[in-house]
Every structure is written in structure tokens, then in C-alpha cells.
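Lecture 7 notes: from sequence to structure.

We start with a single chain of 599 residues. Read the sequence below before looking at the structure.
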Amino acid sequence: MNLLPFGKLPAHQPRKFIPQIIDLGDWPQIAPLFDQLETRAAQCKSAADLERWLLDWSELTAALDEESSRRYIAMTCHTDNAEAEKAYLHFVENVEPQLKPRQFALEKIYIRRRDELHESQTSPATGKNKGTREAHPSENRYFVFDRDVKNHVELFRPENVALETGDAKLCQQYQKLTGSLTVNFRGEETTLVQMGRYLEEPDRALRQEAWELVARRRLQEVDNFDEILDRLIELRQQTARNAGFKNYRDYAFRRLGRFDYTPEDCTRFHDAVAREVMPAVRELHAARRHQLGLDKLHPGHLRPWDLAVDPQNRPPLKPFGQVDEMVSRTQKIFDRLDGELAGGFRQMQDLRLLDLDNRKGKAPGGYQQTLAEARVPFIFMNAVGQQRDVETILHEAGHAFHALAARNEDLHAYRNSPPIEFCEVASMSMELLGNEFIEEFYSAADANRARRVHLEGIIGVFPWIATVDEFQHWIYTHPGHSRAERAAAWLELMDRFGGDVDWSGYEAARANLWHRQLHIFTHPFYYIEYGIAQLGALQVWANSKRDKAKTLNDYKKSLALGGSHPLPELFAAAGCKFQFDAATIKPLIQLAQEELKKL
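Now the structure, written as C-alpha cells:
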């Protein structure tokens, strides 16, 4: 039974090392390939030998990566399918625990052979001959790879393999729980994602009814959500202690390869958002309150169900009716933006690499997953006919363009693992660049309205990013905290970054609002990247206003680098500065505000 929208895809390049017929979900068939690589490493007598060995290892890693991705995609597309769940958990429980120590062994072997060969001749590790000057990172083909492998070797602990397996299983439980939540709204069973459309309705009583129903449903699962996180925290803190770190926050920064910024830089980002962005947010809230006529009411406060509706009480934007319509109109945007990018999106449709509609039993959210051996991207989302869906498809298409731009890079580590901070520049830039042609979905008036919604969303997301990121810093630097203390810490952040919204009567919902943020559960510390990248994307957008052709050319060239350069160099290739302090944030927020005034 094929649970994937796509079938078997050919490898981008013919296999040279892995057998054509092999079950990559069966460890006894995989293990001999690692045996061969370990044996062959000792036979590498030159840099060329080691490089060939490295590419064979990369081929194996890519094939296993794709096997894992296929199972993850099937599971998230069908969280209620026992077969998909079983296949995913089989890989998590029976392949990954075997795989991690073998990959670690090859990493140690690579580092040792690299150093040995470096003593006598040119090696993949240095890209230079013995006795020559030290290469600048951008001149050294393997600088980033070597740095990452060395980091993995230093962090790996055999006893953490079982902990990481437990972590993955708990994350799957969170996905399953959130994917199962529905409400009965006016006689119809509806997913929580689908309920979002009612928050755009002009009828305030209807919005409140829908919002309260969803909030009550989430509150029914408070103990389940908290229990999952409690268990995740315990596993993660133990993982960090095993690796010699005092807390998981410090361990996670190393594990994520954050060589170019520190927790202190994140704190400066939080402070900059409070200083430079929150005044703009409060200004937007005040304007919304006035436009909705709430100033005339007693009390005239902005409520949680007032944040998504059009402030002039116009009907919700309806960008499309059916998902096929969304795809065809998105294609037209890319046709107008850039022929090369348009061709990539068309290829994804031809290969059925899209699962975009919302349905019961489907995991929430959206993502782009690269099938690493075929070297093609897959897009997953939950479209229900909202403006947010247009932003999401443009966003995930940006990730897909990144994968396609780097597909001729043969080193899997560079092709599939660019720094997340730059991956999100690819996607967020595409939201802004694609919005220039948003008339493919709307009339001219509604197009400007959609642009306004998007820019207001960009301003508004910075405080949410700061909240989620600072909350995670608090969680993992306060060991042994109680659930009540955790809720209090969250509420303190909501006071700082929540703006002028009245939650009176809904204090429990506000205290548990973080339950909806899957990153806190499934991707710890993966959220500040969105803030860093949004600043990069705003810089790309600002550049496009001066020279669109050069900006697009720089954008595509930077994506083609994959992960082969350090983070500041990738930003520079796209024409951006890698900075996220107040000095960087202030003019970009001002630009967004100026554009809003034009709209």
C-alpha cells in the first residue's frame, strides 16, 4: 500500500556504491555497507582516494536519509494510519539506533585519515598542500564539512542514542495528538486548522464562538501536552549531561552548529525586538482597535479573536476555492517572477511532490522535505483557502528552490544541510518577492490588502519568535521547574511581547498558548532562525526595490551554495548582512512601516 502521493523516484545520479536492490529499512542489509566503508578507509592513500570514499559514504547517507523522509512523509500525511505509523516507528526504533554509532565511527575514521593524509599531501580536509598558507574558509572546499564532522565527533555519546530514540517517539506522539484534535462546530466535525477561517469572519460573535471552542478543546489536552514536554525535557537534559554540558540549551547550540552566534546574541535580539518592534506592534493594535470600532465599546479592548479579521470588517480574503487552483495561480506568480524558478515548481507538480490540502488525520503545519537521493523537494501543508495558505506555499516553495538549486552538489552534507538560518532566508524572501505578483490571486484592491496582511504579519511575528525562543532558553536553564513555574515564565513573556490584547476571562488559554507551537516539542531551539532569516529576507526585499535582476541573481547563486560556506558568507552571497541587533532591525521595520502607509 503506497501512502505517498509520489511513487518510486530515480536517483539523481546512478548508484556507484549501494546495491540497486536493497531494503533500506532492514538493518542487516545496511550494516555490510558500513563494514565496507570502514575497511576501505584504511586503504585510502591519497586525497583523491579519500574524496572517493567520502562520496560513497555520502551516497549511503543520502539513500538512508530519503528512506527516513519517505516514512516521515507517509506518517505525517496519515497520522491515523496504523501502517504508516508502524513503518515510521520501525525506522526510528530499529534503524536509527543502529545507524548513529556507525555514522559516528565513520566520522572518527574520516577525521583520523584526513589528519594522517594532511601530514603528507593535499587532502579533502584542507584543500591545499602541506606548507602552504592556511586557506580562508571560502577557499577551502571542506572547511564547513570538517568543522561539522569534528563537532559531531566531539558531541557523540553512545548512551544518547537510546535517549534520542525516545525523544523521536515522544515527538511522534505530539504530532499524533495535535493531528487528532477536532471540534464539532455547528453540527460539523472540523479540524482546528480549518477553524482558523472563522477568525477572519466579520461577525464578531461568530469569531468568539469559534475561538472559544478551539481554546476549550486545546485545554482538554493540557495534561497530555505538558506530560509530553516534561518527558522530553528529562530526556534532553540527560542527553546534555552525558555530553558534558550543564544544560540542554548549551548542548543544543553546539549540536545545531551555531558557530556564528551565541545565546547572548539571542538575548540581544529579544531586547531589540522589545525596543524596536513592540512600538510598531502596539501602533498596529491601536489602529486595529480603532478601525474595528472597539474604541466605542465598553470595554473597548482588542480580544484574541479580533487579531485575524480584516480591521475594516470586510469579508475574509478568498484567494482560492480548491487546492488545484492555489497551485495553478502560484505557478503563474513564478512564471512572472523568474523562468528558472517557475520550471522548478512545474517539475514538482509533474512528479506529484505536493500534498497541500487539510484533512482529518493529517499532521498540522507545513514543511518542505528533500528526498535526498532523488534530490527533489516535497511540500506538505494544510491549505483551507486562507491568505495564510498563499504565504505558506510561497514560503515552502522557497525551500524547494533551495533544494533544487543545490541538487548538483554531490556532498550530501552540503546539499541537504545548509544552515537553517539561511534556509529560512530562501523561503521568507520568496514570500516577499512573490507578493509582487499576488494579483494572480486577487483584484488590485485585494492584492494590496493581502500585502498589508503579510507585512503586518512580519512585524507581528518578531515578538512571537522572541517569546518562543526566550521561553525555550528559560525551560532548559531552569532544571527541575514545575508546570506552574513554566506557565508563569510564559505569562511573563506574554506580558513583554503580547502587545495590547485583552485576555481577561481566558487566562488558562493564554498560559497554555505555547502548546500550539510544535517547535517547542519537536524541534527544540529551532525558532530563532526565523527571526534571523526574516531580517535577511527583508534585506533581499529591500535590495530588489533597487535592482530586481541583480537581487534575483544573487538569491539563486546563494541558494546554489547549499551548505558549503559559513553562515555569514551565505548571507553575503545573497547581498545581506548577518546581523540581528537593534541597528539592523530598526531600518527594516521602518521600511515595512513605510510600505504599509503606501497600501
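The two ends are 50 Å apart (CA to CA). Keep this in mind for problem set 3.
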